Amino acid sequence: MTRFGDFAPLCHQVPSYPWCNLFYRQIEHHNSSILQGVSADPTSAPVGVNPTCGILIAGHQGSFANIANIIACGLSIIFTALLVVLATRRRAAVGRVEFRIFLVLYLITLPLQLLSTGAFLEQGSTALTAITAVHAGFVAATFWALLGNAIVSTQVVEDGTMSSLVPFDFFIAAFLAATIYISLDVGFSFTTVFGPSNPPQDLNSIPLFVLTSIWPGAAAILYFAIMAYVVLGMLNELRPMWYYVLAAVLFVLSQLDYFLLSKVICRAAATGAVSKVDGSFIATILETAAVGVLYLAWRSITEESWEDEVYYPR
């Protein structure tokens, strides 16, 4: 019976689910007999723990790694870097500094995602476990930055000032540090607080589940609700709201693809339990598209530059 905080169903059924890397090392060092099928050999094992479908590490049985998602991440990195530049140029825009921080954090998650799900590194290795832990930390911090931008948009504190940036950056650091620490403890079992799952086959970690699964969804919902209040209630505008609705739809579609369609794509392209591609690349494209639409929404409710006063000599 599945309990709250169990990663076993996700690690078995969702291809390229990155947080499974943490449990693979945990099981390999404490209960290696649980690893069966394609997961039995760490030198070729795909992301997941005994997955029903996965992509083998590059070089095994002609695998080109998770090539589709590697390309999607690469294109998303270029696109997001462009958004950072465009946001920087909007000198007078409300929340410019905070929104740029959000974009930079999302930008950092992309190469980390590429490495943690790209099928480059050996399962259970120190490098893959550490990279996955850092990836989890930046994902949690990115969703705080998203929610923080909504709070800043209400102008409860003046954007770009110390009263805004100090708590904004503090919570980024807090989410980053806490999630990385918990993830490392899950992977390396430094302590028994967040360490080995009990029972081991359930791959259970409530704190990790909350920070990587519950928190992002909750932050996204709160962000949408606050921005709806800002746009419709405070600004009395309608058109910008459609951008936020579109961004929400794209984000939901990305999650549906990742958790439902990805398995279908993986099995359709699979020989046995081994595949050449899964649906993670579609999820990456949709998530990046959602971030792009958020930029359009933010631009539509902010000023690009200050009005320069014109001096007419007498």
Automatic annotation (TrEMBL):
Membrane as UniProt keyword: yes
Gene Ontology CC: endoplasmic reticulum membrane
GO annotation terms (biological process): protein folding
InterPro entries: Chs7 (IPR022057)
Transmembrane segments: 67-87, 99-121, 127-147, 168-194, 214-235, 242-261, 281-298
Organism lineage string: Eukaryota, Fungi, Dikarya, Basidiomycota, Agaricomycotina
PANTHER family: CHITIN SYNTHASE EXPORT CHAPERONE
Pfam family name, one: Chs7
Gene Ontology MF, one: unfolded protein binding
Highest taxon above the source species: Eukaryota
Claim: Metal-binding is one of the keywords in the record: no
Protein name: Uncharacterized protein
Keywords: Membrane, Transmembrane, Transmembrane helix
Organism from which the protein derives: Lentinus tigrinus ALCF2SS1-6
